[in-house]
Amino acid sequence: MTTAPVIPQTDVRVEEPVSSRQLKRQLRAQEAKTKLTSPWASGLAIVLAILWTIPTLGLFITSFRPVEDINTSGWWSIITNPGFTLTNYDQALNAQGGLGSFFLNTIVIVVPAVLIPIFLALLAAYAFAWIPFKGRNFLFVAVFALQVVPLQVALIPLQTIFVNFGLQNSFWPVWISHTIFGLPLAIFLLHNFMKEVPASIIEAARVDGAGHVKIFFVVLMPLLVPAIAAFGIFQFLWVWNDLLVATVFAPSPNLRPVTAAIADLSGTRGSSWELLSAGAFISIIVPLIVFFSLQRFFVRGLLAGSVKG
Amino acid sequence: MNSRPARKITTAIVGVSAAALLLSACGGSTTTPTASSAGSAAGGSSAPASSVAGATGPQPAESGWCDAVKAQYPNLSGSVGVYSTIVSPEDTPYIEAYKDFTTCTGVTVNYEGSKEFEAQVGVRVASGNPPDLGIFPQPGLLSQIVNNTGAVKPLPDFVKTNAQKYFPSDWLNYGTVNGISFGIPNNADFKSLVWYSPKTFADKGYTVPTTWDELTALTDQIAATGEKPWCIGIASGEATGWQITDWLEEYVLRYAGPEVYDQWVSHDVKFADAPIADALAKVGALLKDPKYVNGGFGDVATIASTQFNDVSTPLLNGQCTFAREAANFDSNFKGKTIGPDGDINAFYFPPANDQFGTTVLGGGTFYAAFADRPEVQAFEYYLTTPEYANARAKAGSWISSNLGLQASSVESAVQQEALKTLQSTDTTFRFDASDLMPAPVGSDAEWKQFTAWITGQDDATTLANIDAAWPTS
Amino acid sequence: MDFLLNPTSVGDKLISMVLAVVIFGVIMAVLLFAIDRPKVPNWVIVAAFLGPVAILLAVGLFYPAAGTVVRSFQVSVNAVGPDGGPVINPNTGQRLTELGFSFDNYTRVFTDPAFQKTLLNTVWWVVLVPVVSTLFGLIYAVLVDRTRFEKAAKALVFLPMAISMVGASIIWKFVYEYRQGGSPQIGLANQVLVWLGADPYQFIITQPWNTFFLIVVMIWINAGFAMTILSAAIKAVPDDIVEAAQIDGATGFKLFRRVTVPTIRPAVVVVLTTIAMGSLKAFDVVRTMTGGNYGTSIVANEFYTQSFRQGEGGKGIGAALAVVLFVIIIPVIVYNVRQMRLAEEVR
Lengths: 309, 473, 347
Fold this sequence. Notes:
The structure holds 3 protein chains of 3 kinds. By secondary structure, chain A is mainly α. Chain A has helices spanning 20-34, 39-62, 67-72, 87-93, 100-130, 136-145, 155-164, 172-196, 199-207, 212-241, 244-249, 258-263, 273-305. The longest helix of chain B has 16 residues, at 439-454. The model of chain B is unreliable at 1-53 (pLDDT under 50). Chain B is α/β, with parallel strands linked by helices. In chain B, the strands form 3 sheets. In chain B, strands 1, 2, 3, 6, 10 and 11 form a 6-stranded mixed sheet that branches. Chain B has a 3-stranded antiparallel sheet with strand order 8-7-9. In chain B, strands 4-5 form a two-stranded antiparallel sheet. Chain C has a two-stranded antiparallel ribbon. Chain C starts with a helix and ends with a helix. Chains A and C meet through helix 1, helix 2, helix 3, helix 5 and helix 6 of A and helix 2, helix 3, helix 5, helix 6 and helix 7 of C. Chain B: Belongs to the bacterial solute-binding protein 1 family. Chain B: It comes from Nakamurella flavida. Chain B: Residues 1-27 form the signal peptide. Chain B: This is Carbohydrate ABC transporter substrate-binding protein.
């Protein structure tokens, strides 16, 4: 934690749209001013990136190796001792009558569990940012502080409520609990973005007679797209990769997502690296695809909107 | 995360000779009656053995259960859910065995397995959404749920009477909490076995030990050559450490005897008391001595990081000679032949002396119901019948203490031998103590403490810590 | 509506998914248009915007948290019957217990050496993971800023974020895998040691360093997140500030320290906070890699074990652990709130 003096923040300038060429020129000008990199630094960066990737690469290669090879030699010996098999994937995919239905469940769980908290958090963040009312700061701090509640404490109380409403055989418990667990962070992030918008713009809109709804949709929403994308991606990764919430709120095979199915994959066997590695990659693959295909928008969005605390 | 083998299906023990198992010839015939009450310890007061009229001797394999059920519960319909620790692919034989019930009654059985059973069954009961039936991997867990929640339904008389007809009274006692019968024994697990590779034995000129002294001598002989005779792994996800509880139980049973063993289960004999402390010291003399372990893996510390079933590899390639594992360990030898002339085989873990006869350590799982709908009770009745036992045994290697289970239903000659041993009155059978103890001890403190023990914690601290975890009631 | 409450077929599931989203969308629209009239009192507007969230958070987080605090001060005591033994319900076999007010749970949590170790580990997690991840993220963001390979390098470092914690734990368990000296290693970390001429090392078993090897996994996961956010923040540093600083003669590192760091400080705080919260609650890593054995347990993991595996006796201990967790994070919250206040004042 630094204790440097807080430098007054300048507002983000909402400029007239500039032509791409102008933008490039501006960027290049800025580049020249702030660039810190040197060939050494670039070399270091590449080394670090490779280091960061090696563990994953190792398991990835392992997932295509025959069992005997996995247990007797390191994956790096693939060069001198090549072996390739799809058996591990075959075994993993056909476990428990195929993973297809579990993939469907995951998709059914993920879509609402990402969208619903965004809806709700947008409303709340707007209220916290631009509707003055008594106790606003206190409430906002309370919501923020709720992030510390470990979700484990909420499992039984929540599930009790869902059972009382007779929802235990549906997806509602998973959707609602993911929504609840994602809300504090969503509100916090979106609120920070909303605060970034200069008050003068909001004021101008108000003078023109725009109500909250109009301000919300016309003035703020276009600026918020990157923030929503950023939170959406995090929530997507979180929900897709979650095991605990799914175990409690979607216990039956009919609702079980792919992560839970893979967790039971190695059966009662010990460290079956061949199954574990293949299973891990089956569950990783979709988030990776999503991440890599959305990454452009994500980073571009962050550039456009700028993240400030 | 990982399952304890207690929940696994007992599988073929090929090549364990009957002579080795029924050692009564060796040390004068000692007949210790089996029907001692190692009742549910967590219940505080275990049911006196006499309160349950136990069956004796083998029973016929036909009970005509279908007519009995239909007479008792006319108009059955709907479905019954079974929740269990046994996950795919090992759940298939269970689903097979339930088909007869559906054929007779028209009630469908929905099977659901999860590795998170132990934690989730509590969560589901607490949130008012319990399964119809659970297959409890440990009696200790069943008694904890009964004591804490009261959500388990006692066996209806109709079911109980039949259970008494087909199960030995001590097995019914394991499923009894506070004097009320809740559990129906499912499988019986044979733990007192040492696995070895016949090929290694032939190459090195060893003979299969049949007594404790022979086993000790062979162990020392191998250690003298610089090789490490034993290999053991205790890693098992959340349950890491359970393997050592089995070792300790074997030693207590062999050196202190079944009576002390029973007092230990009920905590009348504490962990820190001499008989248990001595047994642990003896276990330590073997497992903590780098001369003897850990073949194929390295030093003593590797015991803690090795998966319990990964010892199959060094056994096969001769890096280690002995591994004490239960009968279901053979599931790790897919595609290998099992038998005295095969790739892998097992011999009976012999008694330390003649005092207590043929001591066998075992385990087992228990059905218990959370619902009392007619179809659930009818299903419970089916589970007590010899027809279920035989159907289940035919569907996949499995034996149980059901007296109507026929040797002919069991896959291999040797598993039949194990069944005979279980049903024999010459056997001093004792149920896995940690499974009977209250869950905070048997499935937490013991595991954690023995894991710490193998990585260097001393005996006294370990035992004191386990005693401290015993619920104060 | 049966498919909404018990979807079985593929169609049912997809329809219920779409409906769920639509229902919430409609709620939102109705709320907004209901209040979008002149002369609606302010409190109604606030209630409409905050109502749904307030209800969900109150029921789903606040109420369980409050219940946990209460439960942490209670121990379950067996009722004693006339004969001095426990009181058993003759129909269900349930043992009658009474909840009594007591500090015992806290006493145990703070005096039991195993729990002390757990608390200490948790502190290490909460301090090291955010600080190291953020530092790494910041340095890396600067290193690759506007280089030719920026996109690829960032993608590679961010990649662990897309992997579930369970997946990441499996990946690292494999890196740390141990084989005895002399036999071929299959874990990369030990292979490197062997190449360097050292003996293989039990990364996951050997105390006290094993906790730090688990922390490495969490840092590996979070560094990409820190890098992405901070990189965007650096790029958003306004030109005029930079220019002004340059007129004052600041260049290179000085410029970075004097201008860039203070400007992106709010982003740094957000990143630190988010990762700190994450590492407090992340029990998947410990659970998958060690199950809390070998002295590596942290509060989140211990809470789960105590609450869900230990019956009645564990519930109080679990609750006390959860409360300790709240308390550990209070400084982070307070710091953040102060930052927010400062930001408000600046405006």
